[in-house]
Amino acid sequence: xxxxxxxxxxxxxxxxxxxxxxxxxxxxxxxxxxxxxxxxxxxxxxxxxxxxxxxxxxxxxxxxxxxxxxxxxxxxxxxxxxxxxxxxxxxxxxxxxxxxxxxxxxxxxxxxxxxxxxxxxxxxxxxxxxxxxxxxxxxxxxxxxxxxxxxxxxxxxxxxxxxxxxxxxxxxxxxx
Amino acid sequence: xxxxxxxxxxxxxxxxxxxxxxxxxxxxxxxxxxxxxxxxxxxxxxxxxxxxxxxxxxxxxxxxxxxxxxxxxxxxxxxxxxxxxxxxxxxxxxxxxxxxxxxxxxxxxxxxxx
Lengths: 176, 114
Hints:
The structure holds two protein chains of two kinds.
Chain A: H1 5-21, H2 28-48, H3 60-81, H4 83-94, H5 97-100, H6 109-120, H7 130-146, H8 157-175
Chain B: H1 3-24, H2 34-45, H3 55-72, H4 82-113
């Protein structure tokens, strides 16, 4: 079970997303179909991700820093260009980091930066200042480094990680 | 080309497409959603070939994502990562659909052999 903690984190994020969908007026039948299909995919994931899930601690600082910088850059740029174009531009620049840093430890810098970028896409009414963005983006970088092998190869994984960090902040802010 | 670069280029292209479409059809407010849909669909396309076996699977996944987006876009408006989570759900849902389809096919084949 310890090896699948990353998958459990993703399952919780997606469960929260699906439960919020109920408030849109989507019928219970549609939600049940969605849950059934996603559960099938997770069961396949639990079966296939049984290999050793060891966290490489040497990659955590670079992930946290790059995610934090990606988030702040995207947040600042989104005031000028809007969040989508800001994300695209920062992501494009981040994709060239692999050529700048040839060491194997830094191969995932583009992904962690892109992950932090998604936190920076948040509206200014939700994340009011740059410090909050950098902390949350850094947290998403930490989650990225520690859940590396969970849902590997599934698109939208980075976005789920950023969503988790922003939602955690909103829950703490609203209920504490 | 890595997946981050591919996704970023798709997003920038989507913004350019929206700009050109707005010039041609300035009254269509639905065009505001074009970059968001392209952004989210590009996240679906970031999946590895082990998850989405071919381009038709990616196309199907994009369609599933669009349905999820049209339902959920306004709930998570302004929350970073909302598009990506929808994309992840779309990929998982599509993968679940394909798995159920294969299981059903096996069951029908075994039933026919009997």
